[in-house]
Structures are given as C-alpha cells and as structure tokens.
# Entry
Amino acid sequence: MTQSRPRILIIAESANPEWVSVPLIGWSLSRALAKVADVHLVTQIRNRDAILRAGLVEGQDFTAIDSEAFARPLWAIGEKLRGGGGKGWTTLQLINALSYPHFERLIWRRFGADIRAGRFDIVHRVTPLSPTISSALAAKCARAGVPFVLGPLNGGVPWPKEFDAERRQEKEWLSYIRGVYKALPGRRRTLKHAAAIIAGSGHTKGEIPASMQSKTFYIPENAIDPKRFTKRADPGREGPLRACFIGRMVPYKGPDMLLDAAAPLLRDGRMVLDMVGDGPLSPALKAQAEALGVTGAVTFHGWLEHGAVQDVLAGSNLMAFPSIREFGGGVVLEAMALGVPSLIVDYAGPAELLTEGTGWKVPMGNRAAIISGFRAELERLEADRPALIRAGQAGLDRVASQFTWCRKADQISEIYDWMLGERDDRPEPMLEKRNHAAD
# Structure
C-alpha cells in the first residue's frame, strides 16, 4: 500500500506555462496532478526559465535536464528537412524520436538510483505525446518494480483520401509509411512494460495491440484551466452571425474552404468572420476574400496573444473550424469553455470532443462536399439563434464535468490507485462520455 498521496516522478520533456500546444499540455497536466499526488517534474532545460517564473523551486519541485548538446543539432536538421513554415510534422517527429532517447538516458542517470530505491511509487511519462516515440524507462522501471505510466498518447490520424493534395502541400512524405513504427522492437517493449497506457484519442487507442487493451485507458489529451477562460459569450445575440476561425493558416485546417462556404452570407451582410492565426496561406486567403467580394466582412487578425484570442472568441456566435486532420482539437474545448458552440468536420480529435447537443458536425467528404455542408449549416444557424444558445450551454456543462485539468487529474488518479492496488475495479475515466448525449 502507498501513502494517501502517491509519489510520482513525472517526465514531460515538453512542459512550459508560456507556450501552447504540447508544452502547455505537459505543464498543465503536471500541475494538476500535483494536486492529487506528490509530484516531481522532470523536463528539458529549455523550459527551465519559464517554470522558475511560474514559481516552482528547482531541485524541490522540478529538475531540468540539459540534453541540448544532442537535441539542438538534430532539431536544426529537422527544421531544414521539413522545409519550414510549420510543415512536415511527421519529419519533425522522426527527429524527435532520434533525440529523445538521450534525454531518457540522462533522466536514468539522475533518478535511476531513486527509482530502484523505491523513492517513487509511479513514473509517468506525459510527453512526448507521439505514440511513435518509445521509452527505455518503461523496462527499467518494470525491473525496479515501479509502475510506469505512458500517455496521453495521441497522433497519427490518417490523412483523408480526399485530401492527398493537401498532404503533399504539408510535406507529409513520411506519413505514407508512418505505420512502420508499430513493428519497431522499442515500441513493443515500451507497451509491454508499461503498467498503464493512456490513449488521448479513439484512433490511438485502436492502435494499441488487443493484448494490451486491458491496461489502456481513453482520456482525451486536452483540457482547460477555468482561470484562463473567465469570459462568457452570448451566442444567441442578434445581428449578423459572427463566426471565428482560430488556427494556423495551412491547407489541412481548411480556412479557404470556410471562406468559400461563408461567401454568400458574408456578401449579403448576414455574417461576419474573424480569422485568427497566421501561416503560409495567409496571402492567398486575403486574395481569395477579395476575389469573393467579402473583404469588408472578414477580419484577418494574424497571431494574437491568448487573452486577445479569448476576446475574439467570446464575441462570436459560432466557432467554424473545417480542419480535416486534427489530433486533439483543443480549440474546440476553448470555445466550449466560453459558451461558444462549434461547427466542425466529423473526423478525428474535434469530433470526439464535440458530442451531440454541443455543436454540429459536417460529414467528411471531398472539398466540394465540405464546403456545401458548411454553407448549409451556416445558413441554418444564422436563422436559429436559440439553437446556438442551447449548444453553448451544453458545451459549458460538458467542459465543467469532463475537461478541466483538475478533472483530468482526478481521472488519472483513479488509474494510479488501480495500479497500486488501492482499488479492485478497473476505472473507466471517460464513462460519462458514452452517456453525455442523453444528458
């Protein structure tokens, strides 16, 4: 039996309170877990200054591992190979897979004796999120008799066959052979020796071998901090339908499809559109808006600070997000946290977060089908403000019940208790997910 608060060594190579995406997930989840366990965070040296500014004490609360001598040159190579501009994500993950083992070697050199001596009840690797990156620590912890938790793992959502051109535009050459990673010995050993595996999406859970499903738990990777989302939208307010798009301006996010879908409403004054973000498509999108005759109804904000993004989102009736390949879809949760319903493509991460009653999904199809589906929904919602109000409130309720970081920590704490023998029944962290549509 353990103490009432288990002692957890959290490994989060990416954990930074001042960044977004994976680093913010690593940071937010590690801090939430510190409320239910005695946590020591191990992260990469690049995060050290931000963590110190957040008030943590080095040596007591966290340890920064300096693997830059190995990681920095490989990262530079990866940036050149991916072609810049935020493209070639799969290539960057390959580089990370090459550099990450050195980071774990340094962790074992620093904490191996403590792990073998039983000074930690559990070792939990939170990041990297990619299921393609194995962990030698899993086997080492198993030999030491200390349970090793892996996850949340998320990634590798297949490219829709209708968007192979966008796949090439994103320079995702390695995605064609990504499945090879499943046969790598390191992956098999990692999964075998992990005491528990947390899958951050239904797709990733499905990629875990059947023999290991009994120790695999589905918990979506994203959550929100209520302290960061204090505004409340009024999605039913009158006037032109105000929709917003938030994300990088790249082909797979679909901002060009949204412009085409919304063009009739934008031209006749029934809708205005805020586009938040930047990327290689930005110049073409502005030219597209001009060609469609909708420049007066579209505002291109570029990159905004998080607080300013929240202001734009809170002033919207709807978040319109026609991305065709999202692993997590955290922006959908952020919209929910403000009471803004979303309109998305029914595929991958966002579709798992958006349950019946909290927003609307357009079926996956080719470009013309998605544009047609979005246009029809925008036309319908522009005339049905009560539907927007109902979905906004349902989203708020769903976030509060399942998707705060504190709730996420509670869900993972149930898994900790199960591994340590403090509960006999296998936890079902997202059991409410299956019943939510009926609430």
